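Appendix B, Record 12. Input sequence as logged:
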Amino acid sequence: MAEPLLRTEGLSRRFGALAAVDGVSLAFAEGEVHAVIGPNGAGKSTFLNLLSGELRASSGSVRFRGHDVTRATPDRISRLGIGRSYQTANVFTELTCAECLWLAAQSRAPTSMIFFRPAERYAQAGAERALQACGLAPRRSTPARELSYGEQRQLEIGMILATEPRLLLLDEPLAGLGHDEAISVMALLREVSLERTLVLIEHDMDAVFSIAQRITVLVGGRVLETGTPEQIRASAAVREAYLGTEQP
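Logged structural output:
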């Protein structure tokens, strides 16, 4: 069996007496969309923060491509090939779409002396690829502040793509979006998932069951169940703990 792209073993994070994430052991296969769902307060965002290095684990480990990254800083984790989005769109509102993507792309330049060399040599091609991939090529000269919220979400995903990640950690990418915007972002995520691995936190169960190949349910910081969408849909324990009447 192939080594998972990402693996956690007994991963925990405590805040005083509270275990927000409690002994989570999961494997994320390369090329898979793996959704992490659960009720509010289940520890989903804390779990993502542990994977991205924004929080330090109290115990347990995280391995990416076979290497221990449990104590790695967010910038090192990003350079290793893990990109992260947030519950609210995180873009440079005063810059144009093209400039936002150029900044993201140039962060992968092989030298810190980037500003002493032609920007095109290092970042222009990557920024242009990301601009096309996120569907904002017609808006390249538009300041990010003038984009709709859905377009800002697309731009944020484009900025992640410009860093050339192998794995994307997506924290509620559909939060705050209207119906049409959610459809556009879901189409983008499906396209992105053809070439990359996605770990997705999302409360929209229709979206989760339509895109994920594997689903993990967290409750109280612990794994309740992991399985295919069909297995999760059929689980009495999951229905009782979380899905209930929200079940698709």
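Strands lie at 6-15, 18-28, 33-37, 59-64, 67-68, 82-84, 167-171, 197-201, 214-219, 222-227.
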